[in-house]
Putative plasma membrane glycoprotein cd36
Amino acid sequence: MGFTLYDQQIHVVKTAGELLFDGYEDNMVLMGKHMFQDVEIPFDRVGWFYTRNNSADLIGHYNMHTGADDITKLGSMGEWNYKPRTDFFEGGCGMLNGSAGELYPPGLSKERPVELFTPDMCRTLPLDFEEEVTVHGVKAYKYSGGQRAVDNGTLYPETACFSSGEIVPSGVLNISSCRFGTPVFVSFPHYYGADPFYLEQVEGLAPSKEKHQFFMSMEPTTSVPLDVAARLQLNIMIEPYENVGIFSGVKRVFLPVLWFEQHVIMPPELSGEIAFALTVPSIVRVTGIVMCVCGIAMLFWIPLERMIFRGRRVVAIGSKPSPAGAFNGVHAFANGAEKGLLHATEKNGTPITTLLLEKPEKQPLPECVGDRRAEAECFPLIDGKGATIVKS
């Protein structure tokens, strides 16, 4: 009745701006707001991304883990709209798994998928490891959306809770419970990776891995995203309704409406910084090893040095100039039990003479050692210089 009253058709012709961000007025929306006043409808125009520009309200409130207590939870979802799970899917399908896309815990695994929570779909999208790649010279793990990501229980029983009671072939995600009951299904562009059932319904589709794959390439140590291509397609399920005249004769079909791509790749100039950051732990590790080895060597060298120079003495003697006949300022002498070496140097213009004495192992020092007056008689030096012998 309403469709006939407002002269509604199955298809409408609008500009790209009206269909995407500007929106357009629709009499059915106005009628619905008057008929269901107890239901809050957050828009007054029809547009796939209407009111989305510069708005954070549509994605809800996020509560994410910082990793302060457990680094493995860094960036993972804690609450969405102040709840630990969604109200749109039952069982494990309603859990807030994965990250919002900004942060991931360090240390990726090829066996563990990367999970991305998407508020527009009110669910988590799993990405499985595909291969190792290189992005501007930096090694990365590539995770991509495969059949499991868009399955609804047909191929993987654990995904059956995402079907919302609508059993369809694998390849599309039923998000009608998240979109006010609108029969909206999400797939990869051109039904990439979907059951051939969908390709047979629409002409002109040509799925391509290069153009339509959803993937994230991430550095495995730091989990920093290096190359991300988020590609999704919106589809409307049209099916016959016997009580609605304009829908009474249509076939059940999943009609593609639009697909979009958000592609972000690391600038080449940042690749050097990331490569350097990856070498820092190795540099710190090698530096620590070298310092430990040097410390151990010093612990062994100090007592060894004492053993080598045990029994030697250093004696400072008078400041008189060394004799002119000294050979290179050095005089050798021997006096009974002591052997010595007289070495003349100069400091600040004043000659300084140093006497090095070596004590034989089994010969005791003379009794005069320690008595300054007696030492001059026991050790007559060149030019009559006095010496002081220091015991160890």
Summary: The first helix runs from residue 2 to 5.
